[in-house]
Amino acid sequence: MSKICIVGNSVAASRTPEEAPLAGWGQFLGEFLTPYHEVRNYARDAMTARTYFTDRFATLLNMLEPGDLVLLGFGAVEQRIDNPARYHGPREFKEFLYLYIEGIRAEGALPVLVTPTARCSFSVEGNVVDTLDVHPEVMREVAKETGVALLDIVEHTTRWLEQLGPQRARHYFRWLDAGEHPNHSDGVIDSTHFNEAGARAVARMIAIGLHESHEIPPGFVDVGTLSMAPEFAGLLPEFTVEAPEYALYSEARVGSAPTVDAPVQSKTVGAMQKFSGTADAGTTYVLFFENGAYLGGTGVNGKGKWQWRRVVNWPAGDHVVHVVGYTAQGVTPVSAVGFTVKDHVQPPVVLGPRDGALNGPRPRFSGTAEAGVTKVMVLEGGRLIASAPVQKDGTWKVTHPHDWKPGTYVVEFVSIFSAIHSRPTTLNVRIHGVPEGNWIRESTLSREPCSDKCEHLPFAGRW
């Protein structure tokens, strides 16, 4: 019996009943295979190409046998440029994929690249918003360069979600109103992870890809399981509310208006801003309007808590949303919250050091960023090397804890706001010091340095 091993992140990871309605596509893939193949799911939460390679890949290689398949489902976590522990620049991501392919092939197994799944995020035109940066394209390039099988699941899930549309797509994600599920009494808004129906639909797409791939031997997939396509779910409850405008224009009101905790009044937010708040006891539903038009609604739990997010991204600019509660006795007064949506962010300004100026081995980078930016990420050679928090006055500064070797380097600085990031600001950094290979350095190589800063003789060229 040959194995199909799954390596990747939380979207593929198998889940327990206690984690319901969360589900991963890896736990359902076996439903579409012939009885002669076993699925082993090694996908884990927040797993990246780097962490799996350094922590667990050797163990996987030791248990592979010729003819096994290894599905490499990376690329969704690695695009988090705001998180140094997770981010992989395009070059680093590509190099790790090469290493995976080389190692798996050396054991006689077949590597398969699986691009990430699309997220439940739509534009006002009804198109799925691309939130995955360049990482799927890097996987396509590696597949072409190495001849490895590619399952382009981001393309399949994008088409699937656009067929569903914003009024239905949320049915397939771990996205629940308050009070809708006992495991999430306050509700949960998750546009990345699937519920059981969504995970099973993605598993079917994976199976179809395996069956249709020219690089994978036949016999893995039970074709009979693919013949029946899943039915589309009905409209979400928020889009089936009858005559919602009554709640906005009714003259009769009961109780008090819902309280909006987020977004904060007059705050600048991202295009996927989440709303949350509370309502009077007995309020069962909260409805949202802009310019008199109904946007959607959400349930309220027994403690009066609610949360809501549009499946459609907010367009950039100023918005005022009116919020009304519904009770058995009638509708509540109306509350309102105004906010500004930013859909792009300007690159940071670098004030020091001056471009092209000579520096010692530990240059201090500093500058300013526009309002709302929370941190500035520093990259060198496409790899994250530091993160600088932005202060309330818009200034930032950071010094890398390791000495730079003498030479000239190109350093990039990127502003982070919400889930978006800016284009990079580029700085040429020249480091002054004793060059590598110089006798002053080479003459001390018979001894290990005792510390980062050493007072012993002879001087080895380090500050």
UniProtKB/TrEMBL annotation:
Keyword vocabulary terms for this entry: Hydrolase
Keyword Hydrolase: yes
Presence of the UniProt keyword Hydrolase in the record: yes
InterPro entries cross-referenced by the UniProt entry: Ig-like_fold, RhgT-like, SGNH_hydro_sf
Family: Belongs to the 'GDSL' lipolytic enzyme family.
Name of the protein described by the UniProt record: SGNH hydrolase-type esterase domain-containing protein
